[in-house]
Amino acid sequence: MGLGAGSIAIIALVALLIFGPKKLPELGKAAGNTLREFKHATKGLADDDEDKKKENDKA
To answer: I need a labelling partner for 28 at 20 to 30 A (CA). Which of 42, 52, 54, 59 fits?
Structure first.
């Protein structure tokens, strides 16, 4: 039950109608920055978990 091409086109059309063509690039950039920061944060958490596992293996 994924999103097909038709569903994505409808969502894009509705977003274009709601926000307008000038605001969409700004929203896309903000969403990209948010995802990048989230990825950075979760990578840091995963690295911390790996460090703890290594310390426990050495002990």
So the answer is: 42
Q: Under a CB-based contact definition with an 8 Å cutoff, are residues 34 and 26 in contact?
A: no
Q: What distance in Å separates the CA atoms of residue 36 and residue 47, rounded to the nearest whole number?
A: 16
The pTM assigned to this predicted structure is: 0.53
Q: Tell me what pLDDT residue 54 has.
A: 67
**45: phi > 0 → left, psi -120 to 50 → alpha, else beta; which?**
alpha
Task: Please classify residue 24 by burial: count the beta carbons closer than 10 Å to its beta carbon, then call 0-12 exposed, 13-18 middle and 19+ buried.
Answer: middle
Q: Provide the CB-side half-sphere exposure for 5 (13 A, CA).
A: 0
